[in-house]
Amino acid sequence: MSLRTAKGDSVGEAGSMRTTDRRSRGELLANLVHLPLSDRRFWNIQAMVVVIVLAQFGVDLAQDHGAISVPDFVLVLLLFIPIIYGGSIFGLPGSLGAALTGIVLLVPRELFLDHDATQLWEELTILATALIIAVQVGNQFEVDRRQREQLLVNERARVETELHATIMEVAAQKELARSEEYFRNAFENNNSGMAIADFNGRFVDVNHSLCEILGYAREELLGRDPNEFTHPEDRPITVEMIRRLTSGEVEHVNHLSRFVHKNGRVLFGEVSAACIRDDAGLPEMVIASVRDVTEERSLIGQLEHDALYDPLTGLANRALFEDRLTRARENTTRHGGSNAVFLLDLDDFKEVNDTFGHLVGDELLVEFARRLERVTRACDTL
User: Fold this and answer.
1) Which site in 48, 73, 283, 369 is 20 to 30 Å from 230, CA atoms measured?
2) Which residues of 173-209 are buried (b: 16+ CB within 10 A; e: fewer)?
3) CA-CA distance, 141 to 134, in Å (whole number)?
4) Is the pTM for the entire model greater than 0.90?
5) Contact by Cβ (8 Å): 372, 344
């Protein structure tokens, strides 16, 4: 399996290299076919070649008349100027275009002027050398141009990558700042008391609602132990809840706890707490909310009392009496014994209301209830 895979990889790499070679040849042919004909500099180079060749014709005519004597390699050296210039601007198409233009213009000179075999081969060798050098120069400039373009592409990609990374970092920072702002608004403007405490047992931050619940200013709470404001009997409950959070036993806790107001008043708070952990998952802080349920519990207690006791005299009402009577019967059935039920009535009570008014009638009932309480046992239901 491994050998076949390795072989397949080698074949794939070879195929990729052949594809790259074909692409390179295709690009070379495309460069040769699509010359930069729309660029004025290209035609200026061709005009330079024409001027050099015509100047050489003039030199040849002058040599025929014995006026001057200029070596033939001077023409090649002069042709190197437009060849190199064209290659530096357009790469291979520029240098090769200049060389081919010069060769085409020299063909009539070679055809119509007399040359012996040695001169002909010398000039052909010079022209071939010029063509080869043109290809080499153009190709080298083409390679350099592609490298520069690749460097520019790489630099542009690097800049775009860094820009993208910077944009993402800025966006992340904005999102973090927005999240922190949302948390801060929710923390500060919460109707429930909010607090953040570290595991050294100190308040790190508190909101205005908690200050109102406990009766202390913010500066008086920061840095202090939350247990200082917890009722002494409920402190073990708070310690146990913190232990469960930090150990990872639970993610959050809810419990009822009593707190002591600055003025000494005891109040009831419904506490909900969760653990804040660092990147390593270790407990770092505790965030808690405290809802004052003192009035709520008082109201519930009052409603429960009103459901079982008469609101005027405070004695048991019919519902509580029937419940106590049922329990007394069940207890007698299990353990034996007997029970007694007394019905007491106030004669002519209606006349008291009609003569002295309902307020006096109510006072009579209350006083009668108090006197009966003084002569009954604690185990009796009145």
Assistant:
1) 283
2) eeeeeeeeeeeeeebeeeebbbbebeeeeebebbbeb
3) 10
4) no
5) yes
**Average pLDDT value for the chain:** 79
275: exposed, middle or buried (C-beta count within 10 Å: 0-12, 13-18, 19+)? buried
Per the document, the length of the chain is 382
Structure tokens at 75: 């023409």
Q: Do the Cβ atoms of 286 and 274 come closer than 8 Å?
A: yes
Q: Dump pLDDT digits (tens) for 265-311.
A: 999 999 988 888 877 778 788 888 998 888 888 888 888 888 889 98
The two structure tokens encoding residue 346: 């106030």
Give CA–CA dist 248/348, Å, rounded: 71
The residue behind tokens 């519990």 is: 297
d(CA 272, CA 256): 9
Q: How many CB atoms lie within 10 A of CB 226?
A: 22
Sign of CA dihedral 121, 126, 131, 137: positive
Q: What share of the chain is helix, strand, coil (3-state, %, to 5)?
A: 65, 10, 20
In this prediction, residue 325 carries a pLDDT of 92
DSSP secondary structure letters along 161-193: HHHHHHHHHHHHHHHHHHHHHHHHHHHHT-SSE
Residue 372: closest CA among 319, 329, 316, 321 = 316
First-to-last alpha carbon distance for the chain, in angstroms, is: 96
CA atoms of 262 and 221, how far apart (whole Å): 11
What is the C-alpha to C-alpha distance for residues 179 and 181, in angstroms, rounded to an integer? 5
Q: Considering only CA atoms, which of 25, 142, 157, 53 is closest in space to residue 94? A: 142
